[in-house]
Amino acid sequence: MGSRHSSTILKTVLKSAFVLTLTGAAVLGAQNNDVKVNAKSDTSVSSDLKPVAASYGYFVDHYKENVKTNATPDTNPAIALFDNTFLTYWNPTDDTKTNQKVLQDNLDKSIQITNGASQAEIDRSYLTDRRDLRYNLISGFGPYAPAFIKDTNAQTDFNAVPNVPLPAGSPYSSMQWADENSPLGSAVKLVDIAEDSAWSGTGTPKAYIKFTRPYRQSDQVKVNPYLKNVMASAAANDYDFPSGHTTAAFETGETLAYLFPERYQQLITRSSEVGYDRVLAGRHSPLAVMGGRVIGTAMTAATLNDPDNKQLINQAYQDTQKDLAKAQDQSAKDDFSDYQTNLKNYTYRLTYGFSPIGDTTKPMVVPKGAEVLLQTRLPYLNATQRREVLYTTGIPSGYPMTDDTEGWGRLNLFKAANGFGTFVDNQTVNMDASKGGYNAADTWKNDISGNGGLTKEGSGSLGLLGNNSYKGGTTVKAGTLVAENNNALGHGNFTLAGGHLTLSAKNVKVNGTYTQSDKGALNLTAGDKVSVSGTAKLGGQLVLKNVKGIKSGVTIFKANRLSGKFANQSLPKGWHLTYTKHDVKLVR
Prior knowledge:
Elements: E1 12-13, E2 44-45, H1 59-62, H2 77-80, E3 90-91, E4 96-97, H3 100-115, H4 119-130, H5 145-152, H6 185-196, H7 203-209, H8 214-217, H9 228-232, H10 244-259, H11 264-280, H12 286-305, H13 310-324, H14 339-351, H15 383-393, H16 413-416, E5 427-431, E6 441-444, E7 454-458, E8 461-464, E9 474-476, E10 480-483, E11 494-496, E12 499-503, E13 507-510, E14 514-516, E15 520-525, E16 529-538, E17 541-545, E18 554-564, E19 568-570, E20 576-579, E21 583-587
Parallel strand pairs: 5-7, 6-8, 7-9, 8-10, 9-11, 10-12, 11-14, 12-15, 13-16, 14-16, 15-17, 16-18, 17-19
Antiparallel strand pairs: 1-2, 3-4, 18-21, 20-21
Helix pairs in contact: 4-11, 6-10, 6-13, 10-11, 10-12, 11-12, 11-14
């Protein structure tokens, strides 16, 4: 994230004030230690990890105050949430555009997006409009969707586009989206609580803000042709901001992602796509769906932190994992199978291409309780570490809709699901493979910077895919660390004290010294190489596989100065190693 996130590092003893008691902490049984301090790497953290209270306090503590009788920012946190963002562009008390440029850009983007819609987007946005708000997210399950539909009794009465535009007043889906008494009823019930509770709606904020929908601001906004009669006949007080469909999409998608993190990024990408569909249809403006993401994410975190939901959350997680973990249908359609496309789309929809309107250098703020959103996706990290992940993966300040006081608008959950963006402090990661899932194996895809370093403990396997530049060095004590990029190990010394270093890149660099103890094992495929800028001391085991096509004399290890030898070698038959002061070669 750059120097602005590390320039204010103030070491302080972690206090219970921001080691939050998360309802999700008990989800994985032995994970109750999740809210405890990791004494090896997290006894001190940046003071910037502390939550910042808004005018209402913290959203997760006051979210149930979003009721119709609380109709002003002074009484309703779901309205006050937008005090520093949308309510600085628009004054609802006298219908004044207080930032005409931002609101004109907002309308222009609505015009551009609706006029550029493909037929496939028109069809999809129609179905998104008509279906139950929760049913809309099932497509994010991809190959797991058939099992989810079957075991929740999910259904919809909108499966195809009409031949002619719907008549005015046509109703939305009248079917129950899923059954709370089904085999996956606990998951259905949790989603219903997250999305359908009396306090989670956007009706009260909409009624206060009173911002006109884009198709009524300009006839250049091209409405969905199947919905033109429905939209033309909508009530005058059917307002734009914030988008209810988008709010529900993030409440549902993030809840399902919590229950089934194996599809975490795909589900939240579908959440963002629902918002985009609302813009495509002409129903909502980009600012309105960005607002829906903000309030939907805050509502989800509040629901998952609510002690009243603890037992249900645990049951829903266990049931979903048991039901879906081995239920892939490879023949099922998967609209979110391409990682790069998901990344591109989700990232664009965080800002919708708006230019910054404020200071872009403010430090990241992590809302109270937001770490619960990563509880099952990064289960081997403690609560403080997950806050640091959110802190180091957030988007820059200064963009429209990003700078609410608590920081909900700057969260980038897609990037956060890829692990740390920066090692502000030294991090110890302890993965227990016996727990399965991401505890057993995970890959961090971000380019990790920062002054801190990484220590890998536990029996699990952690892959580093990013072009890393962190400076604090790397130590492997147990389990496996997989270098999936030539610069995966960043800068600083590397110590293989135990466990395995496995190469999944051709020329992995160590920008410092290399030390391998007698308990460490280096795993290579012939053709891979470790290049060390400093001195290297070898020991322990070398495991080398697949010499097909490899010529005798290839260098597999190189250093400025080399000492020691691998004590144990597992090589293909007929091959051996030769050592010099600077390298190790594979010969036959």
